[in-house]
Amino acid sequence: MAEIKPFRALRFTDKAGDIPSLTCPPYDIISEEERRALLLENPCNVIRLELPREGENPYAEAGQTLKNWLDGGILRRDTDPGLYLYEEEFTAYGQTKKVKGLICLVKLEEFSKGIILPHEETLSKAKEDRFRLMNATGCNFSQIYSLYNDESHITRGRIDALSSGEPRYEFRDGGGVTHRMWLVNDPVAIRAIGEDFESRRLYIADGHHRYETALNYRNSLREQGKATGGEDYVMMMLVDMENDGLVVFPTHRMVRGLREFSGEKLMKACESYFEVTAHSPVGEISAKLDALYRQGKKAFACYCGGEEWTLLVLKDEAVMARLLPEKSEAYRGLDVSVLHSLILERLLGIDRENMANQKNLVYTRSMEEAIASVQTGESQCAFLLNPTRVQEIRDVAAAGEKMPQKSTYFYPKLITGLVINQID
């Protein structure tokens, strides 16, 4: 099934500076202010390649910067191919957690083959941006985050044994996440791990845009007669799906710009499908939702301003089977599917194209930001959700379906800049 292999990563040399000052979060969660601060700390920060903004053609500028750094010894390619074991230690929901996996190259496969499975819809604008960057630089600067099933945890045992020594890198970032990385060059160990994946599927957790972009890049090179083989692979971080450190945060929805919107009328209409209960204050939302999450209820909160908020609990899950008979039980059972199908589409008239273009729907991981956007009048209402379970992600992907965009937020994000895949 999945084909993985080691690679000779590009890594920053001591000439570039300390590794903490050279790495950055993924490009899509960095503000312009944060980008500038990273470059102010170290002008060689990988953000100059990952999120170029300088010059009339930022993508071409990134390509030239990459060349300059290679020529100047800022970046150097590892001598031998290897696997890179990566661990993040962090705090979530008041607990200290660790998640560890391996960074390698994975052979690109069309989704239709059922070897690498997506779980989420993507936005076209992001794919266009990443495609232009790949064309200009010929690199994967950040890893796609994927999960695999390993009920006996054989691979996890190998990874733990190979990372028992001193890490090559270890540092704590500004967000309180500790990053560690080990390099494995032993051919026997690499071969054993590769054989582990020969019967496995991979489930993309984060990085759908980058994976689809890699497919487009590969196909483009083939059409131009420029394919050399390296474009058949993409850099991934692979993690055991049953890893205790996996944390998924919800992504909340903010509704704005609808004509003649009435929160009171919307809540009245919701009574057809939901138990509708008013509560206050807004500080209780998280606790109420968490209690229902533990009970397996399909529920979310709606905030339209003021001191009160409304709890919506689905009355009868059979309604989803009637509305979406073509979808799997796994898809119909998602909180986000219930919200999108029954309220956003059916009651508010926000269709899927509208959602994809973020015309009347905007997303945020921060419940506080969602609530504040309503209080300031920027949004007309906000829907606060519970997180999607990892098992639900697997089941939807295995059914060959995709969740609505922005359905999951794996935390913490993988840091960018420890290793770079230069596509041969």
Automatic annotation (TrEMBL):
Concerning InterPro entries, the annotation shows: UCP033563 (IPR008323)
The entry's protein name is DUF1015 domain-containing protein
| Origin species | Caproicibacter fermentans
